[in-house]
Amino acid sequence: IQKDYPQMGDIRLVGLHIGVEFIKDPQTLEPAVEQADKIRKEMIKKGVILGVAGPCKQVLKIKPPLIINRQECDEILNSLFDTLKIVFHN
Q1: DSSP E strand stretches across 1-90
Q2: Which of 28, 63, 65, 76 is deepest in the core (most CB within 10 A)?
Q3: Model pTM?
Q4: Measuring CA to CA, which residue among 43, 6, 48, 13 is closest to residue 28?
Q5: Could you give the CA distance from residue 27 to residue 47 in angstroms, rounded to a whole number?
Q6: What are the DSSP E strand ranges found in 23-90?
Q7: What is the CA radius of gyration of the chain?
Q8: Bridge partners for 14 per DSSP
Q9: 70: exposed, middle or buried (Cβ count in 10 Å: 0-12, 13-18, 19+)
Q10: Tens digits of per-residue pLDDT, 14-73?
Q11: 62-79: per-residue pLDDT in tens?
């Protein structure tokens, strides 16, 4: 997904606690706070709750339950991909 959407800046994770940073431009690394908020709201409509907390409002937090299965992971990734198409108009 990151190859298709360079607006996904840094992706950091510890176990299943995943943070995806959104940026306006890969060169300037300017935070994409408004876009991250739109992504979060659109994902909630699709039944996926993403967190946003702390000082970095451009970082969406994905914290699935430990019992998540492969099919559910694929569903979340497909929802994210579809949402990025909407938000970034690709």
Answers
A1: 8-14, 17-22, 59-62
A2: 76
A3: 0.91
A4: 6
A5: 33
A6: 59-62
A7: 12
A8: 17
A9: exposed
A10: 999 999 999 999 899 999 999 999 999 999 999 999 998 788 999 999 999 999 999 999
A11: 999 999 999 999 999 999
- Tokens at residue 8, please? 């996904």
- The 8-class DSSP code of residue 55 comes to S
Q: What tokens appear for 35 in the block?
A: 């876009």
| Measured CA angle at 69 (ends 56, 65), to 5 deg | 45
Token representation of residue 73: 């992971």
The token pair that represents 49 in the structure block: 């709750």
Instruction: Give the 3-state secondary structure percentages of the chain, helix then strand then coil, rounded to 5.
Output: 35, 20, 40
Neighbouring residues of 17: CB distance < 8 A, sequence distance ≥ 6: 61, 62, 63
